[in-house]
Each structure stands twice: as C-alpha cells, then as structure tokens.
Amino acid sequence: MNKQLFLGDEAIAQAAIDAGLSGVYSYPGTPSTEITEYIQNAVKKEHIPFLHAVWCSNEKTALETALGMSYAGKRTLSCMKHVGLNVAADAFMNIAMSGINGGMIIVTADDPSMHSSQNEQDNRVYGNFAMIPVFEPSNQQEAYDMVYEGYDLSEKLGYPVLLRITTRMAHSRAGIVTRDRKPQNPVRLEKETKSKYILLPANARNRFKRLLEAQSAFLEASERSKYNCLSISPSPPEGGLLGIVACGLAFNYLQENFPNGFENPVLKISQYPLPKKQLLQLAEACDEILVLEDGFPVVEEQLKGYLGIGLKVHGRLDGTLQRDGELTPDKVRKALGMEVISPYSVPEIVAARPPALCAGCGHRDVYDALNEALKEYGDAKVFSDIGCYTLGALPPWQAIDSCIDMGASITMARGAADAGIFPSVAVIGDSTFTHSGMTGLLDCVNSNANVLIIISDNETTGMTGGQDSAATGRIHAICKGIGVHPDHLHAIVPLKKNHGEIKALIQKEIEYQGVSVIVPCRECIQTHARKVRQKS
Amino acid sequence: MKTDIILAGVGGQGILSIAAVIGEAALEDGLYMKQSEVHGMSQRGGDVQSHLRISDRPVASDLIPSGSADIIISLEPMEALRYLPYLKKDGWIVASSRPFENIPNYPDREKVMAEYNKLPHTVMLDVEQIAKDLGALRSGNVILLGAASPYLPIDFFKLENGIRSIFGRKGGDVVEMNLKALRAGAGGKV
Known about the structure:
The complex is a heterodimer. Helices cover 41% and strands 17% of the residues of chain A. Chain A is of the alpha/beta class.
C-alpha cells in the first residue's frame, strides 16, 4: 500500500475527488482553505473534466450552489471555517429540511484556541441543531475514509453530512492510503422534487416529519459505524471504575498517554448522533465517565441529560478539563490525574511576536493616512472588519476600534453615526465587502448615514493566502449601483507618495454629511510576488 | 524508535519546507509520521512552529506532549526558547544564531545567549553567513536541517532524496543548490 503525505485538509479534498465529486463551492477561511485550493490545483494538473472548484462570494452562496448541484444528482462539497457556517446557517438549517439528491458533504473547520478566528464555537452544535449526521475524524486516514464513504451514506440517507474538523486535523500531515477513483454521477433528477424542495409550510411540515423519522436511521448508522468503537476489557480494574468517552482527536491524546493500552472502558466517538447503545453499555460498566472532547462540552451536556441516573459525568463543565481552548495531550494527562513534567520552562526574556502587516502592504499606507487625518478629530471611531487589515489594531497604528464579523464595519459605523458618533469610519477589505458589506452599504445609502467607508482593496482574499476575490475590478461599479453619489466615490492608490492626497481626501469626505466611499486600491504584495515568480 | 521534533521560526523563514523534507524522507523510510503546522494569521511575521513526530509504530497524537521533544530546530535563537517546555531533559537545540528583530522589545542578544549557556545540548550556527558564503541566500532553512541531521533518525541520503522530491518542481538548479546547502550545514562531512 502506497502512502502519500497529506494535510488533513488535503486528505478530505483527495477523498472527495476520488468519490466522484462534481463541484466544490466555498469561501476561504482558515483552517478550511486548503481543501478547495487542493481541488482547484488537482483540476488544473490532472485536467479533471466537469469538476467545478470555485470560490464564491460567501459561505451562504457557496452552500446554496452546492445544493443546486446536488438537486441535479451530482456529488458536491462545501467547505468553510466554523464562523462561515453562521453565514450559511439559513441554507444549512433548511437543507436539512429539504434533504438532498446527489451526495453532499459540508465541511466545518473549527478553531479551538482561536489560532486565526474571533471565537471558538463548536459546530457539532449545528449538527445537533439541524439534526443531521456528523463525522468527527480522529486522524487523517479516517478523514479520507469518511469523505470517500460519506457520499454513499449521504445519498442512502437522503441528507447532507456535516464533517467537523479542527485546526489540528486540518493542518497536520500524515501518510494516507487512497482508494480507486469513482466516476461522477450523471445528471439524475428525483421523480418528485417539488414537494421536497418547495418549503412552503404545507410541504415543510411534511419534510420536518420526514427528518424526525430519519433520526432512527441516523442513530442506527452511528451505532453501526466503524468509527465509533467501545472497548471494555474482560478483566477491568477493581474499584469505582472510570469510563472514558473520547471524541475525534481526543482519542489520540488518550492513546498518547497510554502507549501500551488503557485498561478502563473507552468509547471512541467519531460519528453522531451519539451511539446510544454503546453509551448505555459504557454507563452499565462504569461508575463515572470522563468526556474528552475538543471544543464545547457538547457530548458532556448530552450525557448529563440522558444518563442522568446517578452517574457522575466529568469534563469541561465540572472543571476536570479547562472549559476553553484546544485540547492537548497534556490537558488529557492532567484530567486523568497524571503529572505533566517539563524539565525546562519558557525563559522570561522571550517576547511575544504577534503577526504584522507585510512590509510594502497597501493597508499600511491607508492606516498611516487615516491616523493622521483623524488626529484633528478627537472622538473619531473606526469600525473595522475581518482580514489582514484587522492587524491595524496592533502597534504602530492601533487604528481601529472594532472587528466583530464579516461586514460589521459598515453597519456598525452606520449605527454609531445614528447615535451621534462623529466621525464614524468603516474600514473593510474588498473580499469582505462583497462577502457581507454590500447590503450594509445599501442600508447606509437608503438612510443617508453620515459615514465614511474605506474599502481597502488589495484585489485578493489576503489573510487566507491570496484566493480570488469576487470584488476584483467591480467595487466602483457596485458602489455606484448601490447608489453612492459619484462625487463622493473615490479611487486612490495607497502609496507613500500619495500620503498627503489620501489624508486630504479622508478629511474632505468626513466633512461631507452623507455616505462617502474611498477605495484605496493596490494589489497585495504577496500575490503580486507570486505572479512574478510564476512568470519567471 | 520515536523522535519528536519541534520546528520553530518566524513566518516566512521556511520551517514548513524543512518539515516537508523530513516528512518525505521518513515516509520513504517506511516510518510513521504526523506533522502539525500553523497556517493563516500567524504566518504574517509572527512566531510559527511545527510539531513533527516520526516513529516505527503508528503515531497517536498530532501534538508533542510537554517534556518529550528530542530536538528543537529553530531558524531564530529566541524562538527556540519559546518551546523549551516541550524539550526532554537531555534533548538538543539546533538553532540559527542570527536574531530576527521585527519587534521593538526583542531581548538583548547576550541575554538570549545566557539562556543557551544554561542548557546542556545546544548547537548554534550562523546560517545566514553560511548561506552567503555558499551563494545560496534562500537556503538557510536547509543549511539548518543539515546541521540537525546527526540528531535525526533518518539516513542522510534519504534527506537528500527528500530535497529532490520537495524542490524537484522548482527545477534542477534549485535542487542542486539545496543539496549543497544540506551538506554545508552538516559540516561538509558527508
């Protein structure tokens, strides 16, 4: 068996291709980006016909596009970071109502410890919420196998499957054995589609009953899943017995601490809904249960509910494990009452080295000018957004006052302006603007809000490594179309030599009572350098 | 046999390429491996690290537990110290001696050196100078890999094959340059 070295993300991508994928629709977001990128590169390299691999304007448009392809009978994938599923949540919750035709896998890449995110939400909660099956691989090979086989399961059940990974799984490499490539599905419509996909109340009530009925099939799939394994030793240790539930990667951390095997009963869970049969067997065999899971205490809370029969359940809720942050082998070790030994500690002289905007980046010139322009207004507030330019929060600029979610800069600036904040400024990137900023701009125009909006355009989705931006070449036309007055819509090149001009323009537009948009536009120096390298 | 390696540096220095070369070589050797790395926000000039685990038995955790790394390979002297809690008592540090000062509060070099003097097994080399002498300015990472090679559980020629495989798509000149860099880092002994 020939093994190839794959990142978790790449294993997922390769598995989807091998399972006969016809379309991947995504929006970039760490740590999910490499899945779609890998498929794009494979399509180019191997000339795979009829496989669409594209970046969409946002996660919602991506997931809905995937549904359209599934409607036509083909296999489809949509990948996003955890907070991306919030954007796609409307589509997500209702795809669980309609169900699917061609197999559909939705990848949510969660980020416990917030390596590159604004929260650490655990999207297994979304799986429960929508009541669909969830996979949580414990290693890269499982990730591959789950996707490869997950399409069959999705088609058999008639529902999408949510694949939940974390940063650690996404960005860790291991040797993977791949399988034979399956052909893509032909276009193959279902016999009856309207009562399924037109979610008018009369149909929706039926679909919801169908979803409720399907739960027993989901449970059976989980109880029979090879990814959920219960091991109970025939001669368990004496005394009040502790059983372990280890979800996804947590299983590895348990193994790491017991390289020669663990004699207490262990239930490894990598597929949901929770395998009730095995959980009851575990509860039978133990006096206490410790739940090891990365993210929120999702399983722990459920066990406290349905095993509420005098059994003690330990985990993140009772402080046996830290409530926040990524799970590690050390945290599991401590939770099992063993000592963590470090012969050396971090010397005091070691200083933090936060990320920074690249030397030569256009956002730097924007913030240099903005800071100077605002000096004359003591109470200015700058609402910013998600992207490289969020680093304007750090020294030397410390130029921004907020970063909440994709698009919130423009809308917050409007609300603050309504409340009397002056000047009220928004700073947003080009890709974030087309992701979720355009609708906020329309709100501003409709209410003639007194805001200055700076769309710092680097012609790419920068922070995630330079993916296509849906906004490239279109920002001016979009703003004009939305109704920004042409006299208050400006383009400028963010370069040192234009510093004075940018500063003056910002001040002039602050003085205008209404919506102004300034678009400083210069290509990201990283994507520019890459293009130069590729040419040579 | 199990070897746990921490790779450290500053975003853009090329630690992920070293990880890829070792990983490729380990796989060719039929060994099991897991390698966890950092992408995204942290790559913008911030500190970056990778956990690389190689073993003749399947590797469980993607992360190295505290106190069990056999070696820290760092392209920057202060960055190696950041990961000391992972190092075994008798573990090694192989580091570039040239500080990367992109922060205002970078510690005095003497203080950094003093921390190294407290540790039993350290190897330091001026990777940038060697790279300059070789005319291989972009191969500092591979020079450091060469210096670390005596402490890795992988035959030198397999690391050379790893270089051929990882840099192959960049052309023969780049492969040759990096092979030269690898040998120079190893002290020209191999």
